[in-house]
Amino acid sequence: MTTRDAPRRRRKLSDQVQERLLELIQSSAMAPGDELPSERELMQAFNVGRPAVREAMQSLQSRGLLEIRHGGRARIAEPSIGRMVEQMGETMRHLLTHSPATLEHLKEARATFELEMVRLAARRRSEGDLARLARILEAADSVRSDPPRFIEYDGQFHREIAAISGNPIFAALSEALFGWLSHFHVDMVRVPGAEQLTLGEHRLIVEAIAARDPDQAARAMLDHLNRANSLYQRAFPEVRA
């Protein structure tokens, strides 16, 4: 039997229903917050049973496209960058655990992303933004001997810069990056003296943001990330691209 003669694999009914529902969700006739037809109406429209409709809707819910509430009709979900990035989380953590090269690639991508992020923050910051950054640095300084809590403030510092940039995609990616890298980052910061170095570098970044100097802010951020990566490589030389 040739490949052309081989029987085609039949698509699951739920996959076909999902495709039809996607067309409905993405049509100009519907908007976020709108209710879909009832399960019974969808069963009749697509000529399928309840299991196929439910499986298709649950799949779309897991992808962040539908909201399903007990006792009510499914609604089209509001678009959310954060939700989209969150859905990548388990796959990314799996890659980071089993592919050292992915960790190096992610750190490289993070550097490019953070440099532009801090440039925007230097251009757009307000006095209130500077006050929030100062409070984060003060709080981090108070927990230098507590690595897990210090890491929380470290992440908060970078997330605040992302928020100052005014770009919600930066904010969502910053949140995700620290979540994905948190296990490796905690190990790294346990190297003696890392907390004090981090605080000093963060202060230089804030000074450049306060001066509205995008180039200096980017240089300070690059020095910070390069030092952190170098420290990580010395602590864990087996983890290399």
From TrEMBL:
It comes from the Bacteria. SUPFAM superfamilies: GntR ligand-binding domain-like, Winged helix' DNA-binding domain. GO terms for molecular function: DNA binding; DNA-binding transcription factor activity. InterPro entries: GntR_C (IPR011711), TF_FadR/GntR_C (IPR008920), Tscrpt_reg_HTH_GntR (IPR000524), WH-like_DNA-bd_sf (IPR036388), WH_DNA-bd_sf (IPR036390). The keyword Membrane does not apply. Keywords: DNA-binding, Transcription, Transcription regulation. CDD domains: WHTH_GntR. Residues 11-79 form the HTH gntR-type domain. PANTHER family: HTH-TYPE TRANSCRIPTIONAL REPRESSOR NANR, TRANSCRIPTIONAL REGULATOR, GNTR FAMILY. This is GntR family transcriptional regulator. It comes from Tepidamorphus gemmatus. The lineage of its organism: Bacteria, Pseudomonadati, Pseudomonadota, Alphaproteobacteria, Hyphomicrobiales.
